[in-house]
Design brief:
By secondary structure, the protein is α/β, with parallel strands linked by helices. The protein is built from 11 helices and 5 strands; from the N terminus they run ααβαβαβαααααββαα. A 5-stranded mixed β-sheet has the order 2-1-3-4-5. The longest helix has 22 residues.
Length: 252
Amino acid sequence: MGQQRRGVGDIPPPDVDPTRGMAKLLEANKQWAKETQEKDPEFFKQLAQGQAPKYLWIGCSDSRVPANTLTGLGPGDVFVHRNVANLVVNTDMNLMSVLQYAVDALDVEHIMVVGHYECGGIKAAMSNHNHGSPLENWVRNIRDVMRLRQKELLKYEDFESRFRRLVELNVIEQCLNIMKTHTVQRRRVETYRAKKRGQVQMTYPRVHGLVYDPRDGILTKLNVEDEARQDILELRQIYDVYRPGQTTMDMP
């Protein structure tokens, strides 16, 4: 007699133990909401009125790197996108939609690309191992950074130093990818002109590269402008897609 097929009714029931899984998480949420309401009775009323964050955080999906917690910002203060190894890929419609919405609808002033040491995605790219699709397709973007920065990476003899430096170089490269986008270029031109008219205080969005160290909890800002000065000059020559009036893009 052939093996009997299992039906929906044969699927084991979901975990109902209140000390585990979603039940524990939902109970913690209720406790947080209660305590927050007691501390600030207007908190949720104000939150329900909408969001106006000044920051867009593009970070890694790693569970050790929560944007609001690390920065001390509250709900509504930072717009967040996370993926494996904090990559900015121009064919990633999810990220590009987040970027466009953050810049055009939310009018964010700062875009932060945030990497972290001990990143599993970076380490995976450093191994000659096929991780299978789609992860391997994604990791290849990091290997492209390795190819572009190979001369510098070879200066580091030990794996750990090379690993940490690649984390930083990946952040810098993703910042450059942000600068290549039409959305950011256009908005910077618009705000530069508005600044000249005295309507805003600065040209934005500003692009920042940061690295988080899980060993001490500190965020460190990279000097992208100095580290990628030649690349930024080439960006304007090759990737300058916003040329009003067919003239060179008038941004500082």
